[in-house]
């Protein structure tokens, strides 16, 4: 099957430009603090990679006026996180500290915090930041002001309702999808991280309002789930797809299965919005991964999804060879914008990381591809067969839905300027119908959403736009103000290095 023939969109991918010359309105969420969070010595997860990505974007000129809206996220609050996570788990994350954690051994065990998911300084603020960015990005798409929203600090797909897992504490993806479900009847989730997107799959396993599709290494590999036979349950049956892959998959093999499957999914499911988790540990040479995708091969998934012109949320995820992660996500931001970026990396504060080639492109290696064409064909047929059993674009009964695009009356929100969500608008997560005893069935009972944002666009001394999105009088104004007093040499690190954050300062120079 010709991959380009699958689906209504995606036919322009053979062109040399970014698939579709038509411009997209893009917003990009970034918090200058995020690069300071530090999982601990030797831990492979390094939020610093998001700051490196940002530096590349800045030096490629993608943060300049007219390219995309650059937004600083509002931190997610307890109640935002509790739309998916349990109250006691969120309370634990909020209160646990590196110093006191050993007084709570039972809780550490119960919530799976300690080993892969260590307690570190600022842990809760970190969760609030990356989750707030993903939810904020979903809100932007719902408002219809942007076609593509990006949060490279998000995509932490392993977190469960009451459990940390695989370096993930709160599941910003589930929270963002819940936000999108306020407006859209169907949301498609696609996961190209090398690991199975288990937390998102589990959250929506029994509903047809979210279709999850995960491409991952399967077989003696974390987290161990993602069998091709796991296809959803109850009303969610056939609304979950798992594509198990083996070591060394290259660009051609990957796209020979990605495009036909996703093309068919788009045609059959017709989602109102798409969330693409762009985990970069599927790239060649990843510290924890074993695939052989080049940066361009990875980005082809972004290009393909962009071509459908459906509201698109791009999230980060895994990625442990951080010079590759930064290059990949920078390149993919260019793809979102429809810009071909020059191969030669511009000079930037992390330039040493990228030697000796100083190229934007992550190259594949000569490692063996253990996925045979025959195996891939079988997997593809198996999954297309499941897709054929899918009810064509199921309609969903809505009750008293207030479209997100309708902004609330101005006076409704002014009673509490700190409110992000109207308390009445919170969704109820209904736990009945659990398959396997642990899946959360998500049903939205009250679609009324009242929210108002004002945006303050600020320029730093390089003229880079940094917009604070808020609705209160001046939250975050202090940070932006202090950023102007830092030396111009390191615009991206300025607010980050503001005094008094009390956090470790990892990796600010190459090691
Ligand atoms: Zn991963």
TrEMBL record:
Cite the Histone deacetylase domain residue spans from the record: 43-333
Q: What GO cellular component entries does it have?
A: histone deacetylase complex
The kind of enzyme this is, by top-level EC class, is hydrolase
Instruction: Give the E.C. number(s).
Output: 3.5.1.98
Q: One GO molecular-function annotation for this sequence?
A: metal ion binding
**Compartment(s) where it occurs, according to its Swiss-Prot or TrEMBL record:** Nucleus
Q: Does the keyword Transmembrane helix belong to this entry?
A: no
Q: Record's InterPro entries?
A: HDAC_I/II, HDACs, His_deacetylse_dom, His_deacetylse_dom_sf, Ureohydrolase_dom_sf
- List UniProt keywords, sorted A-Z: Chromatin regulator, Hydrolase, Metal-binding, Nucleus, Repressor, Transcription, Transcription regulation, Zinc
Q: What is the lineage of its organism?
A: Eukaryota, Viridiplantae, Streptophyta, Embryophyta, Tracheophyta
Q: Does the keyword Flavoprotein apply?
A: no
Per its UniProt record, the required cofactor names are: Zn(2+)
Segments of this protein annotated with the region Disordered: 394-511
- Cross-referenced Gene3D superfamilies, in alphabetical order? Histone deacetylase domain (3.40.800.20)
A matching Pfam family = Hist_deacetyl
What is the protein name stated in its UniProt record?
Histone deacetylase
The record lists the organism as: Oryza punctata
The UniProt similarity line reads: Belongs to the histone deacetylase family. HD Type 1 subfamily.
Q: Where is the composition biased (Basic and acidic residues)?
A: 398-409, 418-434, 449-473
* Any one GO BP annotation for this protein: epigenetic regulation of gene expression
Annotated a divalent metal cation binding sites? 193, 195, 281
């Amino acid at each position: 099957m010709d991959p380009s023939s699958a689906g209504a969109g995606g036919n322009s991918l053979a062109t040399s430009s970014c698939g579709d010359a038509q411009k997209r309105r893009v917003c990009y969420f970034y918090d200058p603090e995020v690069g300071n969070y530090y999982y601990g010595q030797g831990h492979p997860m390094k939020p610093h990679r998001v700051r490196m990505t940002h530096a590349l974007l800045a030096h490629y000129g993608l943060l300049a006026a007219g390219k995309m809206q650059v937004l600083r996220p509002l931190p997610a609050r307890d109640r935002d996180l509790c739309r998916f996570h349990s109250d006691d788990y969120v309370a634990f994350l909020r209160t646990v500290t590196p110093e006191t954690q050993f007084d709570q051994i039972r809780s550490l065990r119960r919530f799976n915090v300690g080993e892969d998911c260590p307690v570190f300084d600022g842990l809760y603020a970190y969760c609030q930041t990356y989750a707030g960015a993903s939810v904020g990005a979903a809100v932007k798409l719902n408002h219809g002001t942007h076609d593509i929203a990006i949060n490279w600090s998000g995509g932490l797909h392993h977190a469960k309702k009451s459990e940390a897992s695989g370096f993930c504490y709160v599941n910003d993806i589930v929270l963002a999808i819940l936000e999108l479900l306020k407006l859209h009847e169907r949301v498609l989730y696609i996961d190209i991280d090398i690991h199975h997107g288990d937390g998102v799959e589990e959250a929506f396993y029994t509903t047809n309002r979210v279709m999850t599709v995960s491409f991952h290494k399967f077989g003696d590999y974390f987290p161990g789930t993602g069998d091709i036979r796991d296809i959803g349950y109850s009303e969610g049956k056939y609304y979950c797809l798992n594509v198990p892959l083996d070591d060394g998959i290259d660009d051609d093999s990957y796209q020979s299965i990605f495009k036909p499957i996703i093309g068919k999914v788009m045609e059959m499911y017709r989602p109102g919005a798409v969330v693409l988790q762009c985990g970069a540990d599927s790239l060649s040479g990843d510290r924890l991964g074993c695939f052989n995708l080049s940066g361009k091969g990875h980005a082809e998934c972004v290009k393909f999804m962009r071509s459908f012109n459906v509201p698109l949320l791009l999230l980060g995820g895994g990625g442990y060879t951080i010079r590759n992660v930064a290059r990949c996500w920078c390149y993919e931001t260019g793809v979102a914008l429809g810009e071909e970026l020059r191969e030669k990396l511009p000079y930037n504060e992390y330039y040493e990381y990228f030697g000796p080639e100083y190229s934007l492109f992550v190259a594949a290696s000569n490692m063996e591809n253990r996925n045979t064409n025959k195996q891939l064909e079988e997997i593809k047929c198996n999954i297309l067969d499941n897709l054929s059993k899918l009810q064509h674009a199921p309609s969903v009964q809505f009750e008293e839905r207030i479209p997100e695009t309708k902004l609330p009356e101005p006076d409704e929100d002014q009673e509490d300027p700190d409110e992000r969500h109207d308390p009445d608008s919170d969704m109820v997560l209904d736990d009945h119908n659990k398959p396997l005893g642990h899946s959360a069935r998500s049903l939205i009972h009250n679609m009324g959403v009242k929210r108002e944002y004002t945006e303050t666009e600020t320029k730093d001394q390089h003229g880079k736009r940094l917009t604070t999105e808020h609705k209160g009088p001046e939250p975050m104004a202090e940070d932006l103000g202090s950023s102007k007093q830092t030396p111009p040499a390191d615009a991206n690190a300025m607010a980050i290095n503001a005094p008094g954050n009390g956090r470790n300062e990892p990796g600010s120079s190459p090691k």
